[in-house]
Amino acid sequence: MEIEIATIGGYEEVGRQMTAVRAGDDVVIFDMGLNLSKVLLHDNVETEKLHSLDLIDMGAIPDDRVMSDLEGDVKAIVPTHGHLDHIGAISKLAHRYSAPIVASPFTIELVKQQIQGEEKFGVENDLMKMEAGETMQLGDEVELEFVNVTHSIIDAINPVVHTPEGAIVYGLDKRMDYSPVLGDPIDMKRFREIGREGNGVLAYIEDCTNAGRKGRTPSESVARRHLKDVLYSVQDYDGGIVATTFSSHIARVKSLVEFAQDIDRTPVLLGRSMEKYSGTAERLNFVDFPEDMGMFGHRKSVDRTFKRIMKEGKENYLPIVTGHQGEPRAMLTRMGRGETPYQLEDGDKVVFSARVIPEPTNEGQRYQSERLLKMQGARIFDDVHVSGHLREEGHYEMLDTLQPQHVIPAHQNMKGYAPYVDLCESQGYRLGRDLHATRNGNLIQLVD
Amino acid sequence: MEIEIATIGGYEEVGRQMTAVRAGDDVVIFDMGLNLSKVLLHDNVETEKLHSLDLIDMGAIPDDRVMSDLEGDVKAIVPTHGHLDHIGAISKLAHRYSAPIVASPFTIELVKQQIQGEEKFGVENDLMKMEAGETMQLGDEVELEFVNVTHSIIDAINPVVHTPEGAIVYGLDKRMDYSPVLGDPIDMKRFREIGREGNGVLAYIEDCTNAGRKGRTPSESVARRHLKDVLYSVQDYDGGIVATTFSSHIARVKSLVEFAQDIDRTPVLLGRSMEKYSGTAERLNFVDFPEDMGMFGHRKSVDRTFKRIMKEGKENYLPIVTGHQGEPRAMLTRMGRGETPYQLEDGDKVVFSARVIPEPTNEGQRYQSERLLKMQGARIFDDVHVSGHLREEGHYEMLDTLQPQHVIPAHQNMKGYAPYVDLCESQGYRLGRDLHATRNGNLIQLVD
Amino acid sequence: MEIEIATIGGYEEVGRQMTAVRAGDDVVIFDMGLNLSKVLLHDNVETEKLHSLDLIDMGAIPDDRVMSDLEGDVKAIVPTHGHLDHIGAISKLAHRYSAPIVASPFTIELVKQQIQGEEKFGVENDLMKMEAGETMQLGDEVELEFVNVTHSIIDAINPVVHTPEGAIVYGLDKRMDYSPVLGDPIDMKRFREIGREGNGVLAYIEDCTNAGRKGRTPSESVARRHLKDVLYSVQDYDGGIVATTFSSHIARVKSLVEFAQDIDRTPVLLGRSMEKYSGTAERLNFVDFPEDMGMFGHRKSVDRTFKRIMKEGKENYLPIVTGHQGEPRAMLTRMGRGETPYQLEDGDKVVFSARVIPEPTNEGQRYQSERLLKMQGARIFDDVHVSGHLREEGHYEMLDTLQPQHVIPAHQNMKGYAPYVDLCESQGYRLGRDLHATRNGNLIQLVD
Amino acid sequence: MEIEIATIGGYEEVGRQMTAVRAGDDVVIFDMGLNLSKVLLHDNVETEKLHSLDLIDMGAIPDDRVMSDLEGDVKAIVPTHGHLDHIGAISKLAHRYSAPIVASPFTIELVKQQIQGEEKFGVENDLMKMEAGETMQLGDEVELEFVNVTHSIIDAINPVVHTPEGAIVYGLDKRMDYSPVLGDPIDMKRFREIGREGNGVLAYIEDCTNAGRKGRTPSESVARRHLKDVLYSVQDYDGGIVATTFSSHIARVKSLVEFAQDIDRTPVLLGRSMEKYSGTAERLNFVDFPEDMGMFGHRKSVDRTFKRIMKEGKENYLPIVTGHQGEPRAMLTRMGRGETPYQLEDGDKVVFSARVIPEPTNEGQRYQSERLLKMQGARIFDDVHVSGHLREEGHYEMLDTLQPQHVIPAHQNMKGYAPYVDLCESQGYRLGRDLHATRNGNLIQLVD
């Protein structure tokens, strides 16, 4: 059976991930993501209203023209988890393929919201939920399986395409977490089986984000322990404490909520995306927040909440807000500029349970945001965080576990591939033979 | 009563700490430390054999000539904890003063060993043990008290001199740890009392090492949780695992030992200073190591142990060795160069539970050491560590707790003082009035 | 005679410089500057319309309240050169003092324009021109002298106040340039005389911007040679070449203009501040630009010029534009966003004859600007520049030349002072004795 | 005609360069270099005494086993210039090939010395001089040509193999210098012709060292202008001035010598490699040093010279010495440690006309060296230097000039290739099609 892989997007950048696997006549697409930083370069762009071709020109969404070189039928579009760089282009591209969108329940829900927000295209693909551990027939001899992985968002999976020639494992976006705060540990047992059953693993597509970092990405429970240390240490403070983190990072939000209660503060989630992700997670029973916990997205309700907090006493609340990257319009930045009813005072604490994404634009915005916060007397706690991506040791372990015939680095540019290429070569792979450093828009023929 | 402070060493550098406080006729000296990096600049220097004046000229030990301007009798020499930058010059300078050396039990023991190693001077000062919480009369109206603090070595204290004019608190080398792995939490309650009793705090001398870092130094228990994550993650590995950390960091060594056992490996401590510090701590009952745990310092016994490990299987052991900074003669560096019987193999793990001290010399040596280790196939886990020094938020809290009339930054150069000066000014202090950025060899008259 | 120095602004930051010297009853004020970055933190602030007190609160202009503690009459307000951090607050503060503004001709002209732009206050102080080398009587025994120095703007001077107790030299903002491209070399001969005549130098106030950088700041002629290398290397290119630099840096603009002609391109200056500074310099005969060289400030005329360039061929022009820091509204940034009629094409060259001011906000904006330019195919040449501030070796030389009794570091925060303090101490000064690390709002009594 | 390229060494590192080109039956080898940093990892290694296989195992010299897969006869071994990473393995590997070593006159001389120093192998290959601009027949239809280029060593060339299928240009180690201080400008005219004659350029092998740096590498004349500024600025200093640079950088040494004379100091070259390179260059008439200028290599004569300098007055001399990277045994480091008769005093100047090679080992050593020099009062001038390797703009220009069908990045690891890959792709090349990011030990079949 012919096996081909189209590396459509995310092979020259982080963002706008998209990959297609053809096994015989059956094609499955993994991810259709957005490169947000390309959008933000342009002032006042509303992606909801833009046409695909313009977004492709901007480098914001995958250029899927290579799909026309791929003979076969698309049987499924499979976003691996709910981050925008993996689902953000679905509303722009999915309608071109007559195939269902298959994803884990939380991811499906986020895709649904994404599609509802779209103003240009009507996306009417079926939305199918499939849990980690489940499988789905794509063709006579081709099957799709979801393996549970751990990442900085819940309900993330790694999809596997089983073919007579071996399995193709799409390994993007995970860390090896044996004690995640929410959900199950990564299913290394199943990966080990896949590495050994039938013809083993034909190809492994790997996320190189942290490939150059030594050691192991710590478990979410390490971040949780760190966060606990921070929040417990200020439990006697009788002024304002504010926290921010990635809105989609439900496990972290959960930890924040719990420690808020431990130190006798009422947690409240504020900001459009805070409400969106946590609300969705709660509705789908992924997380159990306190019954009366407020979540507010619209600016008016947020400001009303802030007024109430000011009235009842800042010392009774822990607002968990958007703005960890210093985004100019996020809640925390507005607080720094004094645009909300919440008055920061000398000694108030602001906890960034997030890392600045290391790019000068973010660094500049975050710096501005911190300066504004400090001018009002706030004290910054930063980097209370661990990454969601494998480091060096995790990569060694995945190779050892899966023993893939071919390896395809992804989710980076060439510079980002470099340490992973070295790592693979130290394990016997050879660039250009069974290790494929590739680019957007390429086809890799694995079996012909 | 006249109160004067002599800032003798460690006010232009990290290292060779020494400060004297005169209250009326009674003088107490805090710390007599060594600046090791000044020694290492010179090849083949053996400090044991050098005269004080040469070491002063090299900038390696405090220049205590300002002591002759200080009228009064030295009543006690008080090292605050057992790190070399606080006790390393005792053997070179203490004999000039006819006063006992007063310190916590663990510190006294290390001072004793320091004196025994000295080849140039006979130091015969009395060695007196005093526990945290205890006090000692220095003069009619002057009393010395030890307050328990938490640092990266056990049995650290902050000494306080009580005078009719108020207390002088010598605050060097601590973090605010409420859940240390060994010993009691920092005694903030007592600091709060000292800040409020009698005339309050006249002067506070503060360690500025991390003054420019945002937020709070995490508890040792956060490092422990991180370390656990690392070691548990490799529990199925059937080859060599080696760890290194600061030898004097008994709490960390204890965590390493315990997690070694958890993953079914016999811990063994190797290297001269590993044996020294851990042996001393165990003898004094500060820590309870497994009865049969080996500790070996002499190269011959170390190599014999390595031979045994190779014979019985590396997978059964976890050697905890010296060499976290890539010191050329330390055990781990020797292992990297293949100079020991321990054979590193592809995939073996080396855990640095330490941070590179950020200075180009260390960075160069550590880099060389890691390259050698990697050439043999080792995989590096680094930065499994937290600092022992207060960051920004701890400094705010100490000022709030003690409410000192005068503040004296220490344990840094002018550049290192800078963020602490800003911090104090944000709390109402004013440089040159009640905030004293000073230099080695100065006298500060607080009450005349 | 009593001598006092008030360190009003620029002693905790770079920006909003202001210092007053009192000699007996005569007071002279040096600089009244603006801290632009404080203004930019706030959206949509128009400084022209703001009241002094609001600007003081923002930290944008000097807080001159300490002036009320200074007995004596202000006899002159002396801006040392035309940069905004030295003259930008004159329109907000000068009217409070009934004294003339005395400055070199180019600086006076810029002050005049500054005052004309002011919308809140009517500043009616006399404007007096005084050339380098000239003197002016301030009181019976007190005289003001201007010494010629070299900086990144023309007609910069260091003012000296001669008193019976010795000279006070205000040394801000210079480099030691013996072959500047415009104007005379620094007058080290006069400094040497001042160091030796009468009672010598009582106090020297020094600019610490580059105190921590090794060696010597290169001459402007080194930057010119570098720039020549860059522009000559692209002389065969037949597309667009664009250059940007500090608008006030007339010597650099002159070099750009000359090399443009050498490679057969018509230079044209575009952008509001380009027109302002170069126009002023030309009108005052400081520089001789080609007679027909265009300078356009208003957006309309700029765009008209761009249209003409596009029509007549980009290969015939070298636009010299604003935007070297990536300022969002500057000309080059607009070109990057495609908002001007000038079309960048693949291979076009953009020369940044400037350095990014090392602060995350600028770095972020400049990064954005470069990304936009590159997306259109432009190729960036950066850092074709030398600083206008003394490095280490210049500081040594000034101390040796003036042999001041007292030294007062300025133009930095405490961290920026640190290397200069070390340097002075290596030359025998002592912090707190004759070396005064001070803060905004202090009075230093030198003779009483 | 079959055309193959073997990428033997320097495709995963900087150092141990070696590449072979086969055109039909004729093979030519470019470079046989040493990776010095691999040697220095090991203590006390003397490469002169080591066997090739051990050096290959250490990664110190190219692993040329792939040569056995290359059918055809080696007709010439062509080192492109005299740096060790290009000629340092000749004494270990050349004897395996019965072919002459063909190089420019200066390079040949250095190869000869290299061979004479070898203690393990007898290398007896013919040494043939060939000038830039000359050609040599390798086979019936295959010709070798040398094109003059500019680099940080004199007499550097880029070899070109002319075949019926087009030219293969080996482009390692050059900058585009139109006003070099010694020798002719780069011969871009000839490159342009080669790009257009016959079948044009089949393949171009490019040095990626600085591919990620914006703009253009400045001409050596820019470094010269900078150096002049530094040395002229200290012409009135009446103490010691010492300079250091790359010994093989004859143009820089020449500038140092000339400026020494301009400021009335006698230049003298000290250190083994200073004598070697400059002596060779003078003997071959590449440079014209003052007749009586001393050059001393042996430690005894160096020390004798230092004694004479001390006696006759340091103010009369400018020693130009080895040690720019802080190498522990180099002359300047010995001076820093006070091991030579030359006494540094407070205020003496040390000029590093070199850049620290950015690797932690060098950075650590250089830092140590500077600290030692400063402890003796020396003042450091650093980075008076420009690189010898093309930056971004030079790469664009070479592609435009040669218009090669295939491009092969070299002289870097994968991370170093990354920006060059991006650059080539922006010019229409495509990774894996006509852009070959390869590794040591590969064969690339261009025509079969």
UniProtKB/TrEMBL annotation, chains A, B, C, D:
Protein residues bound to Zn(2+) 1: 81, 83, 151, 173
Binding, Zn(2+) 2: 85-86, 173, 411
GO MF term list: 5'-3' RNA exonuclease activity; RNA binding; zinc ion binding
Residues annotated as transmembrane: none
SMART domains: Lactamase_B
Any one cellular-component term (Gene Ontology): cytoplasm
Highest taxon, organism lineage: Archaea
Enzymatic class: hydrolase
Enzyme Commission number(s) from the entry: 3.1.-.-
Subcellular location: Cytoplasm
Record-annotated Metallo-beta-lactamase domain positions: 15-226
Keyword check for Metal-binding: yes
Entry keyword annotation includes Transcription regulation: no
Gene Ontology BP term (one): RNA catabolic process
Coiled coil ranges: none
Pfam families linked to this entry: Lactamase_B_2, RNase_J_b_CASP
Keyword line: Cytoplasm, Exonuclease, Hydrolase, Metal-binding, Nuclease, RNA-binding, Zinc
Residues the entry annotates as binding substrate: 385-389
Cofactor(s) listed: Zn(2+)
Cofactor binding remark: Binds 2 Zn(2+) ions per subunit. It is not clear if Zn(2+) or Mg(2+) is physiologically important.
Family of the protein in this entry: Belongs to the metallo-beta-lactamase superfamily. RNA-metabolizing metallo-beta-lactamase-like family. Archaeal RNase J subfamily.
Assembly and oligomerization: Homodimer.
HAMAP family found in the cross-reference section: RNase_J_arch
Record function comment: An RNase that has 5'-3' exonuclease activity. May be involved in RNA degradation.
Official protein name in the record: Ribonuclease J
Gene behind the chain: rnj
